[in-house]
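Example 4.3 (complexes with small molecules)
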Amino acid sequence: MALQRLGIQHLRIFSNLINHQAQLNVHRNQSVLASPDNPRILITGGLGQLGTGLAKILRQKYGKDNVIMSDILKPSKEVVESGPYIFADILDFKCLQEMVVNNRIDWIIHFSALLSAVGEQNVPLAIRVNIEGLHNVMELAKQYRLRIFVPSTIGAFGPESPRNPTPNLCIQRPKTIYGVSKVHGELLGEYYYHKFGLDFRCLRFPGVISSDTNPGGGTTDYAVQIFHDALKTRQFQCYLKPDTRLPMMYITDALRSLCEFMALPPEALKQRTYNVTAMSFTPEEIVKSVQRHVPDLQVTYAPDSRQQIADSWPQVFDDSEARAEWNWKPQYDIDGMVDIMVEALRPKYKN
Ligand SMILES: NC(=O)c1ccc[n+]([C@@H]2O[C@H](COP(=O)([O-])OP(=O)(O)OC[C@H]3O[C@@H](n4cnc5c(N)ncnc54)[C@H](O)[C@@H]3O)[C@@H](O)[C@H]2O)c1
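Answer. The structure with nicotinamide-adenine-dinucleotide bound is encoded below.
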C-alpha cells in the first residue's frame, strides 16, 4: 500500500515536471512570436454583433487566412466563404488549446459573453460563459504568450460611480452579473499583466449601434431596434424612459478603436484598460434625430427591468485618457450615426 502511494507520488512529481518543462518550452518558442507584423488572430464569440465586422477589418489588414473566427453557432454560407471558421466552445479548455497550437495563434480577441439583459435571465450560465470562459482564454494567453483583448463595458460601473461623467478610474460596484464578470475580467487581466507580463488589453465600450448585425441582448439595444421599427412600421415602443441618458458608439468607431488599440506597441500603453466612447443621448433625443428621416414616427414608452440597469450605468463616459494617451478620436456623432443607419437599412424595408 505504502509502495503504491509512493509510486503515485512519483508519477505526480514526474507529470508536474513534464508540464513545467512544456510551459518553459512554450515560453521560449513563443517569445519570438510575441508581436509579429501579420499576427494570427483568433476571435471567440465571432458571430455576435461585433465579431463579424471585426473579422472583415482584420482580414483586410493582416490577411484573410490569418484571422480565425470561432463561435458555437452554425455559420452562414457567407461566413464560411469569407475565411476560416472553427467551432469553439469557450468552456472547453482543451479544444481552445488545440486551436491556439494548431493555428499558431498570436492574438486572441475574446468576444464570447452573455450580455447584460440576457445575463440577468440566466445567472449560472452567465457565470460560466463570462467568468469560467474568461479564465480559459486568459490562462492560454499566459501559457502561449499571446496578446489578448477582452472588451469591458459601461456596465462595469454602478450607481455609486460618478455617472456624468464617468472617469477611467473610479469606484466600480456594478449591480448586474454582466458587470461583475467584466470588472473581474479587468482586474484579472491587469493582475496577469503585473504578475506574468501578459499583454492584456481592454477597452470599455458603450452601447454599440450597427445595421448589418443584431445586438445580443444588452440594455442599449433599443438604439438599434428604433431604426428597424421606424422604417418598417413607423411605430416604436421603447423599454427605457424618454430621458434615460446612456453613452453610445457607432460600430465603425468601436471596431476602429479596437484595431488601433491592438496595433499599439506594448511600450505605448500607459494603462491596460481604457474608456472609449463617441456620444451620449436619451431615447427622446434619438427619436428627434430619426424623425428627420421618418417624420411620422410614433413612439410610446413602456419601461421594463432594463430601466433599472440603465439607471445604474454611466450617463456620459469620459474617454479623455484614451484620447490623450493613444490619440483615440471618434468620427460619428448622433446625427452622423442616424444618417448612416437609415441609409443602410432603408432598402431592407422598402415596399
Ligand atoms: N455590443 C455592445 O454594445 C457591447 C458593448 C460593450 C461591450 N461589449 C462586449 O463585446 C463583446 C462582444 O459583444 P457582442 O455585442 O458581439 O455580443 P453578442 O451577444 O452579439 O455575441 C456574443 C457571442 O458569444 C457567443 N457565445 C456564447 N456562449 C459561448 C460559448 N460557450 N462559447 C463560445 N461562444 C459563445 C454567442 O454565440 C455570440 O455569438 C462581449 O464581450 C460584450 O460584453 C459589447
